[in-house]
Amino acid sequence: MAEDTRQDKRASFSALTEHNTNGMARSSAVASSKSGASKKLVIKNFKDRPKLAENYTEDTWLKLRDAVGAIQNSTSIKYNLEELYQAVENLCSYKVSPTLYKQLRQVCEDHVQAQIKQFREESLDNLSFLKRMNRCWQDHCRQTIMIRSIFLFLDRTYVLQNSLLPSIWDTGLELFRTHIVSDSGVQKRTVDGILEQIELERNGETVDRSLIRSLLGMLSDLQVYKDSFEERFLIETNRLYAAEGQRLMQQRDVPEYLHHVARRLEEENDRIMSYLDQSTQKPLISCVEKQLLGEHMTAMLQKGLSTMLDGNRVTELCLLYQLFSKVKGGLPTLLQFWRDYIKSFGGEIVCTPEKDKDMVQDLLDFKDKMDNVAQNCFVRNEGFINAMKEAFETFINKRPNKPAELIAKYVDSKLRAGNKEATEEELERILDKIMIIFRFIHGKDVFEAFYKKDLAKRLLVGKSASVDAEKSMLSKLKHECGAAFTSKLEGMFKDMELSKDIMIQFKQHMQNQSEPSNIELTVNILTMGYWPSYIPMEVHLPPEMVKLQEVFKLFYLGKHSGRKLQWQPTLGHAVLKAEFKEGKKELQVSLFQTLVLLMFNEGEEFSVDEIRTATGIEEGELRRTLQSLACGKARVLNKNPRGKDVEDGDRFNFNNDFKHKLFRIKINQIQMKETVEEQVSTTERVFQDRQYQIDAAVVRIMKMRKTLSHNLLVSELYNQLKFPVKPGDLKKRIESLIDRDYMERDKETPNQYHYVA
Questions:
Q1: For residue 246, pLDDT beyond 80
Q2: Counting Cβ atoms within 10 Å, is residue 541 exposed (0-12), middle (13-18) or buried (19+)?
Q3: Which of 409, 420, 458, 755 has the fewest CB atoms below 10 angstroms from its CB?
Q4: Residue-wise DSSP of 38-75
Q5: 3-state DSSP: the chain helix, strand, coil percent, rounded to 5?
Q6: Separation in Å, CA 602 to CA 190, 580, 653
Q7: What is the pLDDT of residues 298-353, one digit of tens each?
């Protein structure tokens, strides 16, 4: 009881009761006090708790049951929903909740049990059955929601306080699951129907996706999705795609098959988004990938990879990589086939002598193509890039020495004057690509020998396209192989620079001579160790040239005492003035061509023997020279009889009727061409140098170790030598050193060597 603090004045309450329609009394308090005075209310408790009217519980339940029945039968409810809610609240307030909960559950259970009859009809086809099941489920859900809204107070008080009791919604699900979905016949027909609809859709037919979505949602809500549907669905999917994979691998080519697999995966992902449960995604996609991809990986790659790579099918190769990356073991399998393809295709380029002419260009094109595939299709995967490098290194060294030689010649063709196919930027790009191929080569000394020979010709005959390009290539080689590799090549450039300075001084010297010469002489002074070795050849020079040579020799040795000059006519060249009927021309010719042509100032016609005797040119070189003058494009000599080859009995005379649109005509391209002898001697020189390097390496190792077994010595040699070498060749060099007393065998252990100081 609450009391006012003022003791003199009290407020009194009278309780008025008013009967409500549901039989409960509603109390209201009316305060009376004297007007004008401020009072505080004092609320007193009921002395006795109001009692429920007789039969109130039973009457109220009848009302509620009628309402539930009306909801279940989709008829109108006689009572106000608020009134019904209030009735439930009143019953709960008077501890009738357990009875009310049981009664409600029983009513719902009776109704659900009655629903099973409609699913017993055998005449229903599968689709009609599914629609009826869906309608029943939708009705059940709607009814349960409405019933719960009336019994909400029960749900939020009694049920909430008893953790073991399911809520009204959960009770509804449990009843539907127990009495309808768990019925074996009903469940089988439902799942069969859903699987049939999915199979129809997979076969390209249109189905009611919302129906399937609703029914699968029902199975999921009832917590039977996994056991009743998913397991069977995955078994059916597995069966379908296993058969489809086998069939289509026989019928279709690989690109077409890949597009089919991608489409199937897209369709299945769409099904997951549309109506399947998210938990099905992983096993479903795994199943499709396994049956359409995993089971056929090797067959697909054997059947289609080389075709796709040959045809540069970039789109399909991208798809192939994407799909294989999804399957366990897919990328390692693809990597192995990719590596084998490169080795096979590249090996064919390198090991087919008929293709030598185009080998380097083919290698560059092939490398570009594979780079493009690795970058755009295989998303720059490090494993694939490394496998490509390894494959290139393997096949390019299958044929020793030849690729290195041809790469050097290819570089020569690009750096030579007259190569108008490339701008400076393009040339730089080509050189960069060449260096990538060059990296794969083991015998880089072969490349160096041929590159040096060709560089010498370009520099001495004045056929280098660009000094900048030459030096750029040199810096690339230096960066790749170190300063020792390019030291001699750099020495060649230094010699050319020094020669220019010497010639300026020589020209000044000649101007001071009392008898100036009518021949302008240019000499290149070459340091013997830097340049390729040339076979000395004695030829018969005209007296004017011999005299000029002596003048230069005296001039040079006067400045550099103690040096020895050896004239090398092979790469000499000259510009001759000639008169024809058409008029005067200038002929740019080699020194050998010069000696032959000058003979025709002294006579009309000469035989091969007469020319050989007069010039002193070696037999093979003379035939090449005469062929270039009488059988080439610019025929300044006539050959009798006519023909492509020079024979012993042929005679030559000056072609006075020679015509050409240019004033200066180049006939000395012959000097740039490589003879068979040159090619053989360069290769032999490389092998000779290798023997010296092996000998030096053996002595160096033995001097440091003093005693070593054969196997350890060979192993050490492989680590030190920078070119490929066979064990048999190493054994021969070791035997040679033993014979020359650089080392000796152990008397007791023949496989043991000792250094001999």
A1: yes
A2: buried
A3: 420
A4: -----PPPPSSPPPPPTTHHHHHHHHHHHHHHHHHTT-
A5: 65, 10, 30
A6: 115, 16, 11
A7: 999 999 999 999 999 999 999 999 999 999 999 999 999 999 999 999 999 999 88
Q: Which residues pair with 637 in a beta bridge?
A: 654
The whole-number pLDDT of residue 96 equals 86
pLDDT at residue number 714:
85
Least confident of 92-96, 146-150, 232-236, 390-394: 92-96
| Alpha-carbon span 454 to 148, nearest angstrom | 97
E strand or H helix at 654, and its extent? strand 651-654
| pLDDT over 50 at 21, yes or no | no
Using the CB atoms, write b or e for 473-512: b if 16+ within 10 Å: bbebbbeebeeebbebbbebbebbeebeebbeebeeebee
Sort 589 into a burial class: Cβ within 10 Å, 0-12 / 13-18 / 19+: buried
Nearest to 256 by CA among 172, 326, 313: 313
Q: Do the beta carbons of residue 138 and residue 210 sit within 8 Å? A: no
pLDDT (tens digit per residue) in 617-657:
888 888 888 888 888 778 888 888 877 777 777 888 888 88
Residue 86, token pair as written in the block: 């209030």
Q: Where are the alpha helices (DSSP H) in 512-618?
A: 543-559, 591-598, 608-615
Residues in the chain: 757
Q: Phi and psi dihedrals of 44, rounded to 5? A: -100, 145
Can you give the pTM of this predicted structure? 0.74
